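pipeline stage [seq->struct] | target=NOP2/Sun RNA methyltransferase 3 | organism=Taeniopygia guttata | residues=342
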Amino acid sequence: ISFQAHLHELEKKAKGKLQKQICQVVLDHFEKQYTAELRDAWSSVRDVLTSPWCWQHAVLLNRFSQNPGLESSLAEQGYHPAFPAALPYLPAALRCYSRTAPGRFPAQKHQPGRLKDYYLLNAASLLPVLALEVKDGEAVLDLCAAPGGKSVAILQCACPGHFHCNEYDDLRSRWLEQTIESFIPAPLINLITVSKLDGRQIGDLQPEFYDKVLVDAPCSNDRSWLFSADPQQAVLRLMQRKELSSLQFQLLRSAVQALRPGGSLVYSTCTLSRAENSDVINLILNSCRNVMPVDLSGMARGVSQEFTFLSGMQQHELLVLPEKGRAWGPMYVAKLKKVSST
C-alpha cells in the first residue's frame, strides 16, 4: 500500500483507540454546561478536546543549560518562536517554540546532576507567566506550583530576590522538586523555597510579603477529565467539581493577603468552566475592597495570532479556546492588583 494509505490506516487505528477512551459521562456533562456558556464556540472546542491526535506541544528552552544545536534543529522541524516580540512583557531570555503541526518533540529523561535543555508544555500555560511580569529582585510566590512548569518559566524570565514555590499535595510536591532540580542550577536553587503548606493559610503566615503571586489553582482539568479511564472516578470528580470554586476563592483570598500593597497577582486555570473562572474573580473583586482588576488586553492583542480567545470577556481576563492548528488551552487568566492594606 502507498505511504498515504498507510498513514490513513494508522490515523484510523489511533482514532479508534482514542475514541474508545473518551469518558461519555464527562462529555455529556461538558456538553450541557459548555453549550450554555460558550454557545457557538463549544462545538469546535469539543472537536479539539476529543481529538488528541491534533493536540500540539510547545518547547520552552532552559536558559541555564547549553545546547547550541537545539534551536536550529527545532527550526528544521518547523518550529518558530511562539510569542511575537511586540508584547508588553517578553524577556529576551524566555525562548519558547511552537509549530502548527500536531505531535510532540521527544521528551528528555531526568538524569541526576544534569540539567534538562527544554520543557514541553501547552503554549497557553505561559500566558499566566507573561501576565505576571516578574522582575529581577522581586519576592514571588507560586501558590500551587506543581508540576513546576510555570515556576521554571518564571525563572526563565527573571531572577527573583526570593522565590517561594508551594504545593500542598505530597506526591505532586515531589514532582515539583524534581522539576526544579532538573532545570535550575545549584546557585539559583538557594533562592527558591519549596514548601508543602495549605495555600489557604499562606496569607496568614506571610501577610503583605510578596510583590507577585501566581495562583494556578486546582481546577477541573477539562482535557484530561474527558479521558478518565475510570467512569466511577469521573462521576465522583463531577460531583466534587462544585466544591472547587470555594477552594479557589479561599486560595485567592490568601494570595491577596500575602501581597504587599502595590503588588499584583495572576489567577489561572485549565478549565473552560465559568464557575471556576470569572465567577471566582468577580467574587474576589466584590468582597475585597483593596483589589483592582488589571487590563490584559495589550497582551491578548499581542498574542492573537497564536491563540484564540473567547469574545465578550472583561479586560482583566482572557480564556484561550483550543482550535485546530492552534490547539492551545483551555487556559483562563485574570490579573488583579492590591491597592492598599486590608
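stage status: PASS
auto-comment: Residues 34 and 40 are 10 Å apart (CA to CA). The longest strand covers residues 259-269.
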